[in-house]
Amino acid sequence: MPTILKLKNSVTTTAAPTTLVQGEAAVNITDKKVWVGNAASSPVQILGAGTTVEGTTLTMTGDGTFSGTGQLKVPAGTTGQRSGSPAAGMIRYNSTTGGFEGYTTAWGSIGGGATGAGGDTVFQENSRIVTTNYTLTSGKSASCVGPITVNSGVTLTVPSGERLVIL
């Protein structure tokens, strides 16, 4: 049997309804914000033009489309602020390394090489210290310029039949 959604209408201009129980929704027709109640009876904003919603997780199924000529802001933080429970497909900006990174079975950089004068992308830069466990992808080899230091307690794994070349 489907869950019944109760709809409450609000004309106040307050930041949020004071209480909403799980399964209830409120639409503020003045500021166009939509709120839903959670298990703790705390309203959570889910929609609102030009608003920022903090402390919530958006979960989508299917494909998302972003249109326009603007930009998409991804999460940013230091190496130490990475998720404690990363999952394949996560992306973020690492302010410690100054680059974008993604997670598969380990965190790794995303993007091209350094950009020179005139926009040339001639060089690929790499860090020289391995700070987190890393396993090369099976069926692929890798190269980097050293010397390379692997921090204490960190494991660098090269699968059988693959090569890691340090220049």
Descriptive overview:
The chain is mainly beta and 167 residues long. The chain has three domains: 6-47, no CATH class; 71-123, no CATH class; 126-167, no CATH class. 0% of the residues lie in helices and 29% in strands. The protein has a four-stranded mixed sheet, with no helix packed on it. The protein has a four-stranded mixed sheet with strand order 5-6-7-8, with no helix packed on it. The chain has a two-stranded parallel sheet with strand order 9-12. A hairpin with a 4-residue loop joins strand 6 and strand 7 (99-103). It is elongated, with a radius of gyration of 23 Å.
Sketch the topology as an H/E string, one letter per element: EEEEEEEEEEEEEE
Helix content: under 10%
Strand order of the largest sheet: 1-2-3-4
Secondary structure tally: strands = 14
Shape: elongated
**Biggest β-sheet description:** 4 strands, mixed
Number of DSSP helices? Answer: 0
Detail the poorly predicted runs: none
Please state roughly what percent of the residues sit in beta strands, choosing from under 5%, 5-15%, 15-25%, 25-35%, 35-45% or over 45%: 25-35%
Mean pLDDT metric: 77
How many separate structural domains? 3
Query: How far is the first residue's CA from the last residue's CA?
Result: 64 Å
- Helix/strand/pairing class, anyone? mainly beta
Task: Indicate the radius of gyration in whole angstroms.
Answer: 23 Å
